[in-house]
Please model this.
Amino acid sequence: MLNTPVLILNQNYQPLNVCNTRRALVLLNLGKAELMQDSAGQIHTVSKVFNIPSIIRLYRMVQIPLHSRRLSRIGVFVRDNHTCQYCGTYSKTLTLDHVIPRSKGGQHEWDNVVSACSSCNHKKAGRNPSEARMKLIKEPSPPRPNPFYLVERSAILSEWQPFIPWLVPQASE
Ligand SMILES: [Zn+2]
Model:
């Protein structure tokens, strides 16, 4: 029970991290955070019953270091909502595509790397999108300055979704 994940929000309500119940209770008890939402569970000790927190918010703003936006595979997939940026297919087995191929001087940077399904990646091969007559759904750019990378590896609990809507896969129309 003490290892249930708890979402930590920054003072400005941006998601900051995921911690376990034990750490969240310490932050609450030290007066460093406020309880935003309880989970369904409870902890029974000899003398007390605690509600297990699900979301807490820090009272002080934590500055996010710039290097935290380092390019990563999973970071690109999360930014692109796990969707191929050429055909729009949602997939858990995407590949990274360099929009301008590295062989043509394309950089390994947020604005030149997109998620692509293997069939689009294969079709595009070592060409620019225009040469391959393929169009990007959206121009790639660095992710928002949200520290999404800290929560991307954790399962997103449904009660967290209002705070991290960009991590929730879009329902297909
Ligand atoms: Zn595709």
Q: What stands out?
A: Residues 5-63+146-167 form one domain. The pocket of zinc ion is lined by residues 84, 86-87, 89, 116-117, 119-120 (CB under 6 Å). Residues 102 and 168 are 31 Å apart (CA to CA).
